[in-house]
Design a protein that fits this description.
alpha+beta; Nucleotidyltransferase, domain 5; Actin, Chain A, domain 4; 3 domains; five-stranded mixed β-sheet; 18 strands; 36% helix
Length: 341
């Protein structure tokens, strides 16, 4: 038992990660909850609930309480966060100081709901930091210097992009086109073109196994199973990498167009800094094969995928949690809403 503990949380659409001061990342669980409709009780969360996703009987619903980076179901999200905070890897303490990463350009109501969620789950003090700032800190970028960095965080529910300079976000943009959107495009294409119904887990397998932004040297394929649209019977078929690449081209182009729009409204001096420092790509979507080369070709700026792109946001909240006094000026610092394109 300790008097006070400091934790950093990344409440993601796909996964919830938790950093404990002095230890590191102690929790990395899928943001999925399985709920029994008859008893009104949560039967599983995290990895156990993910196994049930798209496979539950009628009386159990497996859902994501966080959608597009914001809380969609407050009560279920609270139950999930309470269970995560009571994880046996976290020591019990009288006081819990919590730093939580939130998407850019949230409304006052959305920010308040995140604070309320953490406080009702057992946190005493809650500090909010925007995801691109947390990602920059987690990627060890010198954001306090008078130079600009462009961060693109392609998550599951949202793509957050921001130009950061002098400890603040100058311009930012949030898109609801990200990993889950790509999965939905694959599901739709398989149904329309190949006449096969598949679930989201299978679509994600296709994206991870054979998906790519550009043509690569190797040829990949994956065997999938689903329900035939016309007969309703099970069927198996093989998906090739060029098919998957064609299906996800449109959303990837939309992300790049938004990136161009963001750069166009940025001050010219900062755009020069971005050209010098490059674009820093993070989040699960940043691991899609060839996405860095595709952005580099279209924007004309060097693109670098940060180290451990899946955990850079929670590591950024951990940097703040480790030294709250030094980083307090970055927290709850939203002021006026910045340009949203």
């Amino acid at each position: 038992m300790i008097f006070k503990k400091h934790i950093g949380i990344d409440l993601g659409t796909s996964s919830t990660q938790l950093y404990l001061k002095g230890v590191g990342i102690v929790v990395d669980e899928p943001s999925i909850v399985a709920f029994n409709n008859l008893t009104n009780r949560v039967v599983a969360y995290g990895v156990e609930a993910k196994k049930m996703f798209s496979r539950t009987p009628s009386h159990i619903t497996a859902l994501r309480p966080i959608t597009n980076g914001v809380i969609a179901d407050f009560d279920i999200a609270k139950e999930m966060v309470q269970r995560i905070i009571k994880n046996k890897r976290l020591p019990w303490s009288w006081v819990t100081e919590t730093v939580v990463a939130v998407p850019t350009n949230l409304t006052e109501v959305e920010r308040k709901s995140v604070e309320d969620l953490l406080k009702e789950s057992g946190a005493n003090n809650v500090y909010l930091i925007e995801q691109p700032l947390a990602a920059a800190l987690g990627s060890r970028l010198e954001i306090n210097e008078p130079t600009a960095y462009l961060i693109v965080d392609v998550g599951a529910g949202t793509t957050d992009m921001a130009i950061i300079s002098m400890n603040g976000i100058v311009v930012s943009k949030r898109l609801k086109i990200a990993g889950d959107y790509l999965n939905n495009e694959i599901m739709k294409a398989v149904r329309e073109e190949l006449k096969l119904n598949i679930g989201e887990p299978t679509a994600e397998d296709i994206k991870i196994s054979v998906g790519s932004a550009i043509a690569l040297g190797e040829r990949l394929d994956i065997t999938i199973r689903g329900r035939d649209v016309s007969s309703g019977l099970p069927r198996e078929m093989t998906i090739k990498d060029n098919q998957a690449r064609f299906w996800i081209q449109r959303p990837l182009k939309l992300i790049i167009e938004s990136l161009k729009d963001l750069i166009e409204v940025a001050p010219p001096e900062l755009v020069g800094d971005v050209y010098k420092n490059g674009i820093h790509l993070c989040g699960g979507g940043g691991m899609l094969r060839g996405i860095d080369q595709m952005i580099e070709k279209d924007i004309g700026v060097k693109v670098r995928v940060v180290e451990e792109p899946l955990t850079c946001v929670v590591r950024g909240t951990g940097v703040v949690a480790e030294n709250l006094g030094n980083y307090r000026h970055l927290l709850n610092n939203f002021g006026k809403v910045r340009p949203e394109l």
